[in-house]
Amino acid sequence: MPTYTEKLKKLNIANPTLRDCFDPASSEFSDTTMEQKIVTLQKVIANGFSLQKLTTDYCKFYEKLNKPYVAKDLHQGLKTLINNLLQKHTSFRLKLVDNYSNKELVNALTILLEDTTIYPIEAKEIFYKHLVDKRKKYVFNDTEIFNPSELKIAFDEHLNAWGYWHGNLNADILLIGQDFGDYNYYINNDGKDDPTNATNVKLSYLFGELGIDIGQSDNPNTNAKLYFTNAVLGVKKGGMAAPIKKAWYADTAKKFIKPLIQLIEPKTIIAMGSKAYEVISIIYNLDQKRMKEVVDTNPILLDDNKKLFVVYHCSNLGIANRSFIKQCEDWRKIKLYLDQNDR
Hints:
Largest sheet: 5 strands, mixed
Shape: elongated
Structural class: alpha/beta
CATH topology of the largest domain: Uracil-DNA Glycosylase, subunit E
CATH architecture of the largest domain: 3-Layer(aba) Sandwich
Distance between the termini: 60 Å
Radius of gyration: 23 Å
Order of helices and strands: HHHHHHHEEHHEEEEHEHHEEHH
Number of domains: 2
């Protein structure tokens, strides 16, 4: 049976071990440009080779030579290739500290190589799962809040539980609220949302002002290109109306919400409430204004050309600060901008 090397030679690939493409520590890595490496790998895939098997065998070969560090070099090479492909489509990047497995990286690379003109949802899903797994391991240094992963709930495969209502990774609109709820709310609903919750009912009405049917939390309109999350990604104690501490979202804003925005690349961000507005201010280094002032002067054009709309929260407390009639007017102003984008 012909070896990989023999088969690859028939494709006129100069470096049959593929070190030229994968291993930045090899002497051959600098011999070709990133574009040449990508063309080579596309040729390999098009001729029926599995990059998963090639890279696995590659690492095994060097492990037998007592060079296990080659797998780490390969890890960095894969990230470099992926980031090069991503730059055509998104500001999202894999970081040195991100502990993806080589298998995950090869899966993502293979998907991205199949057609470099698009950013497939399958690749986004790999990166999103990694972000969720990272959130599950996050530790809140406060006894008044803890990670949803510490609860025995069935549904915890989104960055925040609100993503079960709308979690489209190709969303045009990203909605950021305050917090999903307290310990009892998580437990009683098994990590999903209660469709009869007053905030959810009002939110459905407000999205109706945009001409968007979001459905209910237990029966979402899956055609809507939306993603919902909250400023606070943990589970608080003390009841649904318990106060929120800045420490609960100041760190996670940059660790999780920022890469989420980069991953989804929404056209519009709606920050619902002062905590959501503060999270966006942390991420984009904005000088915060008073809520009424910023709501009355919507939108804010962010430095990545996304439009930010700040609105009051539609909870009972939010309505006490700005009537629901006024909130409906605020959302209708958002619709004017959305309609302009469609022209």
